[in-house]
């Protein structure tokens, strides 16, 4: 269940409460007249089944509550109530299949902002992956893949394309276009430094690397893996399965490919640099394509479900 807390202008309270009362999947409706001070109005709360949340939020926004009042939503970890069980049964579909588009847009917007923290995480991840590719360590490479924050902007682009949100799309693309070059340039300098103090060795990088050679050798399977990861990543976000998102981070070689490109350039190894850059492009494009198509399918399903859902 999800919990909604609304600040409603007094002259609209009756209509909002009536709408919530007849909406499918809502329960625990509470009205606190005059409780809100800024903005002024009445406080209205209710619980709503996750399957019905998007329709309820859409109806509230259409009634102008997002502009002249306030809408706050939060997840409830536990709800012990016969009324909540009944509301969940009345809402069509399963909670795990539900997509709360407003929540999805908000989450990806926060994760796709170009910030110092984003640049720091991405740069550290690429530098960590650089250590992994030089010493041919799968542990370091996997660790770097988990640290990398790049899936946030990738998901942000997919959500923006499906929702036609130009500002979110530009913000997400900017994070990728600035983040990866900054991280790779920093890693280039880091590689030069490590080589200068004799911690990186050219012979290690250009010698046999059975564990990490796949990073600079893209093939059709690389694109298939990126497609599958994009699908799994979007499903993990829409269903709030954070554990699955860790698996997505480990399965796609975006950060290691960026790291290998930077290290290869520091050694003037153009073949590896080109192969790694190609791998990076294949993975980014595959995730974007799969993520966007997955969201389009989900959006189409929820539109069909909305036409069959009474009560709003």
Strand order of the largest sheet: 2-3-1-4
Question: Globular, elongated, flat, extended or rod-shaped: what is the shape?
Answer: elongated
Mean pLDDT reading = 86
Tell me the domain tally. Answer: 2
N to C succession of SSEs = EHEEHHEHHHHHHHHHHH
Alpha plus pi helix count: 14
SS elements, strand count: 4
Helix content: 55-70%
- Main sheet makeup: 4 strands, antiparallel
Strand content: 5-15%
Cα end-to-end separation: 19 Å
> Helices and strands: which structural class?
alpha+beta
Low-confidence stretches: none
Query: What is Rg?
Result: 24 Å
Short description:
This protein is of the alpha+beta class and 312 residues long.
Notes on the structure:
By secondary structure, the protein is of the alpha+beta class. The chain folds into two domains: 2-97, Alpha-Beta Plaits; 104-302. It has helices spanning 13-22, 50-62, 65-68, 82-90, 101-111, 116-135, 138-147, 151-163, 166-196, 202-206, 220-238, 242-251, 254-266, 270-307, and strands at residues 2-8, 26-37, 40-48, 70-75. β2 (26-37) and β3 (40-48) form a beta hairpin. α6 (116-135) crosses α9 (166-196) and α8 runs antiparallel to α9 (166-196). This is DUF389 domain-containing protein. The chain crosses the membrane at residues 114-135, 141-162, 174-194, 214-237, 244-267, 279-297.
């Amino acid at each position: 269940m999800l919990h909604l807390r609304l600040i409603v202008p007094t002259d609209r309270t009756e209509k909002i409460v009536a709408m919530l009362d007849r909406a499918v999947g809502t329960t625990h409706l509470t009205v606190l007249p005059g409780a809100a001070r800024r903005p002024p109005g009445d406080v209205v709360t209710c619980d709503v089944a996750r399957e019905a949340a998007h329709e309820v939020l859409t109806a509230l926004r259409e009634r102008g509550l997002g502009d002249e009042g306030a809408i706050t939503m939060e997840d409830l970890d536990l709800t012990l109530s016969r009324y909540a069980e009944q509301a969940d049964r009345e809402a069509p579909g399963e909670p795990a299949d539900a997509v709360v588009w407003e929540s999805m847009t908000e989450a990806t917007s926060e994760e796709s902002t170009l910030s110092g923290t984003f640049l720091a995480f991405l740069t550290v991840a690429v530098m960590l992956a650089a250590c992994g590719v030089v010493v041919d360590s799968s542990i370091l490479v996997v660790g770097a893949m988990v640290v990398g924050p790049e899936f946030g902007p990738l998901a942000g682009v997919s959500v923006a394309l499906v929702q036609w949100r130009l500002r979110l799309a530009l913000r997400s693309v900017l994070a990728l276009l600035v983040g990866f070059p900054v991280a790779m340039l920093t890693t280039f300098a880091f590689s030069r430094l490590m080589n200068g103090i004799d911690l990186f060795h050219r012979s290690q990088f250009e010698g046999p690397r059975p564990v990490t050679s796949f990073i600079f050798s893209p093939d059709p399977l690389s694109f298939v893996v990126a497609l599958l990861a994009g699908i799994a990543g979007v499903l993990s976000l829409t269903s709030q399965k954070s554990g699955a998102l860790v698996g997505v981070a480990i399965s796609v070689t975006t950060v290691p490919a960026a790291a290998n490109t930077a290290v290869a350039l520091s050694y003037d190894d153009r073949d590896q640099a080109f192969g790694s850059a190609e791998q990076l492009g294949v993975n980014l494009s595959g995730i974007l394509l799969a993520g966007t198509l997955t969201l389009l399918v989900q959006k189409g399903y929820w539109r069909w479900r909305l036409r069959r859902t009474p009560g709003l």
